[in-house]
Specification:
- The complex is a heterodimer.
- In chain A, strands 1, 2, 6, 7 and 8 form a five-stranded antiparallel beta sheet that branches. In chain A, strands 3-5-4 form a three-stranded antiparallel beta sheet, with helices on one face.
- The longest helix of chain A has 18 residues.
- In chain A, helix 1 runs parallel beside helix 2.
- Chain A is 24% helix and 43% strand.
- Chain A is α+β, with helices and mostly antiparallel strands.
- In chain B, strands 9, 10, 11, 13, 17, 18, 20 and 21 form an eight-stranded mixed beta sheet that branches.
- Helices cover 33% and strands 26% of the residues of chain B.
- Chain B starts with a strand and ends with a strand.
- Chain B is of the alpha+beta class.
- In chain B, helix 5 crosses helix 12 and helix 10 runs antiparallel to helix 12.
- Classes of the chains: A alpha+beta, B alpha+beta.
- Chains A and B meet through helix 2 of A and helix 8, helix 10 and helix 15 of B.
Chain lengths: 141, 489
């Protein structure tokens, strides 16, 4: 399991991992999806591409997860799969180039089971140990 | 006393101090009983967060924690800190994601005996009229960006202009439902977009609308001034600035994390990211935060109006018969520029303006304050403390001591004792809707999950919290409310 939930009194905390940074981000996406969606959405109807840049990997991960929230709660669009993902560093900045598949939830009988207020910096530290990347993510619910 | 390696000195039975150590600029002070410290507060990292907040540049006198303190992000929930306007900082983490999350209490002329036979219908009507749940929308038509910007500027006045209430409602709202110097230009397009269809929506999680009965009166004189009587039906509304507020916090937190080097701060937690109040970044955040606060006041105003409409619809009565009035609306997630008595490290006391961060804390101004409605100036400001949906909530009143000790602040609620996951496990096999109904509480929610996660056992007993503030003389008990009907997201 590339992610596991950790007990947190007020909110939702999860430990995610991956053998590459890209896998770590995919694990974070999978955990996010388990938190927010009460139904199994699979469609690859539409694709969207996003580009993010940040000074740190933690900021990059928060940018990415915050976009998932924005797409779901405001655009009413659920991301079902990550098709392509690439993280690279140019000079002092990290860049995330991602293509996702998803669908509009407006006309579907989908249940959003949780409202994530935000992705916090709390306890977030992306570390590499023995070729494995990991971090804790705390979602403010 | 020592809790998790942190030494606490006893000031009184209800107040404990963490002396200055390491990079702390001021001591930490925690309002709590010994029992609360040993049995609940020790279970998380909230005390460490009280210490962390004491590192904020320009912090004045104390890093404070109210008795409902628990682990938050950067600041603990239940944290209060005042910072100097010239040397100090403003921190989005000291306000939280749900900017101006707060509580509104309204009274009616009805008593429990009159409503009990139609309570089920009332809850259904409330649930139909007030949008609840994740991403709820539709109380009013989707607004244009320029209309949302107008709400950000004028707050609850927008609701009154559009027929959702009366001028009297503004008088009984903290800051009259509008913080000045709120410039929508400081708010991102994304945040505005998130607000387009969320005006007048309750939201999800711990947000609720509750129909309560005044079960017990502790202070007859004050209760009379607030318009309360035993057996009376009142409503409590708990909601905030919704996605718009979350986005503003998110936007500025990212900006300030990136600006850490520029300002030269070395803080123990990234979530404490902050900017000098005087800086452009600090002023922009203050402005955007005020916009979100105004959005939240407008939100609760619309919800209250929809609730009033639901009462009239259910009981087929006139305005005069219902006699529906707002008692007060308080914010418990906000930062405001306020005047307070500040004692420096040499013991010299002066009165000056400071930036008071209240994160999970309620303003509790005493009798005589010109900043509370004239009607309440002889007794003090109502301080509204919700409990859980199965037990009770409290109405308390601000006391002079709050101005001496807590920058005019008190507690804000019960605080969770079980995680959502634990609550779901405890709820397994139970019929919570029936259990609540058996104890006289009708509940309607979007899904059973919310009911399970928010079950009464998941929360601490709010009485313990309220008693600490009462005994410390910060805000004293006026009345106890018992829920009889609840709607949730």
């Amino acid at each position: 399991m590339p992610y596991k939930f950790i007990e947190h009194t007020a909110d939702v905390a999860v430990e995610v991992e991956g053998s590459t940074l890209e896998e770590l981000f995919i694990s974070a996406f999978s955990a996010w999806k388990e938190i927010v969606m009460g139904t199994n959405s699979q469609s690859r109807e539409q694709s969207k591409k996003f580009l993010f840049s940040s000074k740190t990997l933690e900021e990059l991960l928060i940018e990415f997860l915050s976009e998932l929230n924005y797409q779901l709660y405001t655009k009413k669009w659920i991301i079902n799969f990550i098709n392509k993902i690439l993280i690279h560093k140019v000079n002092e900045n990290y860049h995330l180039d991602v293509e996702v598949f998803g669908e509009s939830i407006k006309k579907k009988d989908y249940v959003i089971k949780e409202e994530i207020k935000a992705v916090t910096f709390h306890k977030m530290k992306i570390e590499e140990k023995n070729g494995n990347f990991s971090t804790i993510i705390v979602f403010d619910i | 006393m020592e809790i998790n390696g942190i030494k606490l000195e006893k000031i009184s039975d209800y107040l404990w101090e963490i002396p200055v150590q390491g990079g702390m600029i001021v001591p930490g002070r925690i309002y709590a009983s010994k029992k609360m410290l040993e049995e609940s507060i020790k279970n998380d990292e909230a005390l460490k967060q009280v210490i962390n907040v004491a590192h904020l540049p320009g912090i004045q006198m104390f890093s404070l924690a109210m008795p409902d303190i628990h682990w938050g992000y950067g600041f603990p929930i239940g944290g209060v800190a005042a910072t100097d306007l010239d040397e100090g900082v403003i921190s989005p983490g000291g306000v939280g994601y749900d900017i101006n999350c707060g509580i509104r209490l309204a009274r009616t002329s009805l008593n429990y005996e009159t409503v009990k036979n139609k309570l089920q219908k009332l809850i259904e009507v409330l649930f139909n009229n007030i949008p609840t749940g994740v991403g709820a929308s539709g109380a009013i038509k989707k607004l244009s960006p320029s209309e949302v910007k107008r709400i950000l500027k004028i707050g609850a006045e927008w609701a009154i202009e559009n027929g959702f209430g009366t001028q009297e409602d503004l008088i009984f709202t903290e800051e009259n439902g509008k913080l000045k110097d709120a410039n929508p230009e400081s708010v991102s397009e994304k945040a505005i977009e998130r607000g387009l269809d969320q005006a007048g929506t309750l939201g999800s999680g711990n947000h609720f609308l509750e129909v309560d009965v005044v079960e017990e009166i502790f202070d007859e004189e004050v209760a009379k001034v607030f318009g309360l009587f035993k057996g009376q039906i009142v409503i409590l509304i708990h909601s905030g600035s919704r996605g718009l507020g979350y986005q503003i916090c998110d936007d500025y937190l990212k900006l300030l994390v990136q600006s850490e080097k520029k300002f030269g701060f070395k803080l123990p937690d990234k979530q404490l990211a902050c900017a000098p109040i005087k800086s452009q970044e600090g002023q922009d955040y203050l402005s955007a935060m005020r916009c979100a606060a105004n959005f939240a006041w407008n939100n609760r105003q619309i919800i209250m109006h929809l609730a009033k409409k639901s009462f009239k619809e259910t009981f087929s009565i006139s305005d005069a018969e219902l006699d529906f009035h707002l008692i007060y609306d308080v914010s418990h997630n906000i930062a405001k520029i306020e005047e307070h008595k500040i004692t420096d490290s040499n013991g010299k006391t002066i009165t000056k303006k400071v930036c008071v961060h209240r994160k999970g804390a309620t303003r509790a101004y005493p009798a005589g304050s010109l900043l509370i409605p004239e009607k309440y100036r002889s007794v003090g400001q109502p301080v509204l403390i919700p409990g859980d949906m199965g037990r009770y909530s409290y109405i308390t009143v601000g006391k002079e001591r709050s101005m001496d000790e807590t920058f005019g602040s008190s507690c804000h609620g019960a605080g969770r004792v079980q995680s959502r996951h634990q609550a779901m496990k405890s709820a397994k096999g139970k019929d919570l809707i029936k259990e609540l109904a058996d104890s006289g509480i009708i509940i309607q929610a979007k899904g059973y999950k919310t009911i399970a996660e928010e079950m009464p056992q998941a929360y601490k007993d709010v009485s313990d919290v309220v008693d600490v503030m009462h005994n410390a003389g910060i805000s004293t008990k006026v009345a106890k409310l018992k829920p009889v009907g609840v709607i949730k997201g």
